[in-house]
Amino acid sequence: MSEYAARHGIQYRAAWNRFKAGKIPGAWQDESGTIIVPDEIHAKLNDAAVYARVSDPSEREDQLPAQRKRMEDWAVANGYRVVASVAEVGSGLDDGRRKLTALLKRDDWGTLVVERKDRLTRFGFEWFRLFVEREGRRIVVADEASGDRADLIRDFVSVIHSFSARLYGRRGSKRARAMAAMVEGDDADE
Fold first, then answer.
1. What is the pLDDT of residues 131-152, one digit of tens each?
2. Same structural domain for residues 88 and 154?
3. Both 12 and 47 in a single domain?
4. Does pTM surpass 0.70?
5. Phi and psi dihedrals of 110, rounded to 5?
6. CB count, 10 Å around CB of 93?
């Protein structure tokens, strides 16, 4: 109990009052009267959030729920307690996914479970892992080896489209019209 009080910057009596009020998760009193407070980090890591994602809206009805269920079952089978489960449709390149953002803001989980790295993000997964681990959390990838070629191609096309829109959006419509005219001219020559 004294270690708990020191970690939280409170007096022993305040820690005792928290224990008596049931506000220290997992704490218990042994037969000699000693209060045992579990290591909070390890207890929190057993609380898992499951994240499932597909790129194509046509996969919303069958593949997305199946992926979510697989990950929930995998988490339970590997000793985690699922406290949150989120599924959404969106590109792995999109950094504005609302459900993922809301999940990352929650503080009731310690382990994020995803089926594959690319279900979380297409690029920068290790940076993502680094920032999550700095908060005392972790990311667990259930299937490290698998990859889906169709999703990768869709995301590649999405990257090309995004960069093209930025390029032509900044340079103005005059340049975009000139490029379109050149492409149409090439098609007419054939």
1. 888 877 899 998 866 555 655 6
2. no
3. no
4. no
5. -120, -20
6. 15
